Amino acid sequence: MHISPYLNFDGQCKEAFEFYAEVLGGEIVFMSTFAEAPDDVDCSPGLKDKIMHAQLKVGEQIIMASDASPQNYDIPQGINITIGVDTPEEAERIYEALSEGGTVRMPMEETFWAKRFAVFSDRFGIPWMVNCDK
């Protein structure tokens, strides 16, 4: 069994996934626009060039996503995508890159359970946690 997050974006899915692939060392294994969908798929006119479905592989993990229509997009809340890393240096690197232009709720610091831990939303509004266990 695999459990994978599915992210919805407000029109920035392609940009976000290219950024995540670069920062996380992943590979976009699938990305399709609404225009590439079969004719019987109903989509809003403004979505033709937006992403209908994308998959990003990072190690053995998969993150999936799409662009939501404006009437169906909600800012993510009540969840965080958590990245566990092995070294404080890797935690710092990922935090610096992903948090740039975003909103930091807890800056990178040492905690009683972690050598490094941070909570933030990136510039696309996606909430993240970066954790390097002690």
Automatic annotation (TrEMBL):
<dbReference type="InterPro" id="IPR028973">
    <property type="entry name" value="PhnB-like"/>
</dbReference>
<protein>
    <submittedName>
        <fullName>VOC family protein</fullName>
    </submittedName>
</protein>
<dbReference type="Pfam" id="PF06983">
    <property type="entry name" value="3-dmu-9_3-mt"/>
</dbReference>
<feature type="domain" description="PhnB-like">
    <location>
        <begin position="3"/>
        <end position="130"/>
    </location>
</feature>
<dbReference type="InterPro" id="IPR029068">
    <property type="entry name" value="Glyas_Bleomycin-R_OHBP_Dase"/>
</dbReference>
